[in-house]
Amino acid sequence: MHRVAALGAIGVLTATGLVTMSGTANAASTLGAAAAEKGRYFGTAVAANRLSEPDYVATLNREFNSVTPENEMKWDALEPSRNSFNYANADRIVSHARSQNMMVRGHTLVWHSQLPSWVGGLDANNLRSAMNNHINQVMGHYRGQIHSWDVVNEAFQDGSSGARRSSPFQDRLGNGFIEEAFRTARAADPNAKLCYNDYNTDGINAKSNAVYNMVRDFKQRGVPIDCVGFQSHFNSQSPVPSDYQQNLQRFADLGVDVQITELDIEGSGTAQADNYRRVVNACLAVSRCTGITVWGVTDKYSWRASGTPLLFDGNYNKKPAYDAVLAALGGTPGGGNPGTGACSVTYQETNRWGDRFNGQVTVRAGSSAIRSWTVTVTVNSVQDISATWNGTPSWDSSGNVMTMRPNGNGSLAAGASTSFGFTVMANGDWSTPRLGSCVATT
Ligand code: 9MR
């Protein structure tokens, strides 16, 4: 895989997918790390106004490696009046995510809901230019920082009709608005994956058939679409469908990635845990299912809090559903590094040229703060580490084992992370460097 373009860290995740390795022999002990070992991300919806709550942030930072702004990137939040944009809350989430090396899903550009009333008052020509302007401005603002965009959300009707839902876009611009939105989006940020996202499309039914036919048509005609999001809001009226995996697979077979984008399952105890396990196993069984996002960190802030549909309870305790998800992802509860267990390390290749590649190691504190850390990186003998950044290296006599220490004060708050990087001259050997355990000073 040759990647010549110099991209920012998140852009590289976009381009290459999340290639992360645990640095230890032990199984991963968080959702994000366990999912990464399966080549997937594990994300959550996030609300900007909760980022000042320490327990919320600690849980977010420890467990998740992708975020979706729950409301802050919707049209009413970003462009409340025509051509007047307010990015403050969305920016808070994106900068938090970047500081933690998390991916960001953009949600959502064109949707009938949370749409300011001025949009509904436009005639067709003005609506077309307002839609394209909204996509261009918002995607331009976040260009290179968004892994996947929900370009169009919930454009189909529920029930058996398979028809498009009535909305200002549908009613004034016709079916072609979806295609136009995707074409505009591709030009606005060529590195972002472009998704269509919907609910009640999780099993094979009239609505998902209609979406399926649209995606197949787009692929046949070269309309740019990369992914389909399955919201997966489940409860007893709308349970996990028996053909959930089959449905994900048939979309994947069209040549798009599939993502579980807003997962929550009402219930409690073993029954809820069993349903979550089924969803995770379905995603793992579909190679193009690239990640799972749950629709919130804690039950207490869920959009349907009374149904307790999430993985952490109102006090941020792990629920049986959490344990089931972690186990399904191959993780081990409370596992961690040999030694102190106080920090963990993950590796990503962030860039590759004809003769060399860049690696990035993220060091993350566990559930307690640490004062400092060291990590070893071992390369094969023909390889050479020719540059390093964001750390102070020392070398063993062979020159193949680098011990990295922080520059200056290496303290990390609970759940917080930092990264260092290095360039490996391959000399024909493209093996992935091997990480030693993270050793913390507490
Ligand atoms: O969780 C969101 C909630 O806070 C908002 O009030 C609501 C407004 O429509 O949107 C919720 O998120 C929705 C998402 O954007 C699209 N799919 C359905 C989600 C749950 O309603």
Automatic annotation (TrEMBL):
Q: Which UniProt keywords apply?
A: Carbohydrate metabolism, Glycosidase, Hydrolase, Polysaccharide degradation, Signal, Xylan degradation
Q: Where is the signal peptide?
A: 1-27
Where is the GH10 domain positioned along the sequence? 25-328
Domain of life the protein comes from: Bacteria
Checking InterPro entries in the record gives: CBD2, CBM2/CBM3_carb-bd_dom_sf, CBM2_carb-bd_dom_sf, GH, GH10, GH10_AS, GH10_dom
Domain CBM2 stretches? 336-442
Reactions that this protein is recorded to catalyse: Endohydrolysis of (1->4)-beta-D-xylosidic linkages in xylans
SUPFAM superfamilies for this protein: (Trans)glycosidases (SSF51445), Carbohydrate-binding domain (SSF49384)
Q: What positions does UniProt annotate as the active site of this protein?
A: E262
Q: Which Pfam families match?
A: CBM_2, Glyco_hydro_10
Q: What is its EC number?
A: 3.2.1.8
**What family name appears in the similarity comment?**
Belongs to the glycosyl hydrolase 10 (cellulase F) family.
Per its record, how is this protein called by name?
Answer: Beta-xylanase
Organism, scientific name? Streptomyces litchfieldiae
